[in-house]
Amino acid sequence: MRLLKGIDCTVRGLLRAIDVTIAVARAVVVLSATLAGLSVVAAVVAYVKRELMRTLDASVEIAAPPERVWELISDLPAYARWNPFIVRAGGELAVGGRLHITIAAPGHRPVTFRPTVLELEPGQSVTWLGRTLLPGLFDGHHTLSVTATEGGARFRTSEEVSGILVPLLGGIMRDSQRGFELMAAAVKARAEGRGGGT
Cα separation of 128 and 119, whole Å? Predict the structure, then answer.
């Protein structure tokens, strides 16, 4: 009888050990699947950042006071007279305000957007969000900024574009980058008095 009880205890102990081993194995499988899932998520995020997002950026040092540069870039209606990239602009330059922006990337027909102003720091920067049709197709966070430098000011125009249409627009993105550069050069010429009146 004692022998049977001893065998029974040993069998129960083995069964408990097997249960624990199975539970540990299941936990390892779940952890491995979770880590694999995280790797997939990381790969998707990397793909999205690489393929569905682009940054356009141009900046220039200007031998003029920052106030003069801000005066130029905040006078939206005057863009039609001097800006080679944003060829028409208007609307309410205030947080929540809607703008009318028409861009003309070199070699392309003008396109008009109705972005919303997200941030405004008078004298320093303005950021707006423009979209094409629906969120996620083609969204652009555009910032114009002015910072004081030892010799005057630095002007920067930059945009983070994202959406499922971005991979299809490689050519216009390259040409828009050129438009950003042309705009920066025009701001410089205008602020330094080489581009005519305001």
Answer: 7
